[in-house]
Amino acid sequence: MSDLITLHPEAQAQLFTDARTANTFTDEPVRDEQLRAIFELAKYPPTAANTQPLRVLFVRQGQAREQLLTHMSEGNRAKTASAPVVAVLAVDTDFHEFIPRVFPIRPEMRDGLAADAVARERMARFNATLQIGYWLFAVRAAGLAAGPMAGFDADGLDKEFFADSSWRSLLVVNIGKPGPDAWFPRLPRLDYDDVVRHA
Amino acid sequence: MSDLITLHPEAQAQLFTDARTANTFTDEPVRDEQLRAIFELAKYPPTAANTQPLRVLFVRQGQAREQLLTHMSEGNRAKTASAPVVAVLAVDTDFHEFIPRVFPIRPEMRDGLAADAVARERMARFNATLQIGYWLFAVRAAGLAAGPMAGFDADGLDKEFFADSSWRSLLVVNIGKPGPDAWFPRLPRLDYDDVVRHA
Question: CB–CB of B189 and A102 under 8 A?
Answer without folding.
Answer: yes
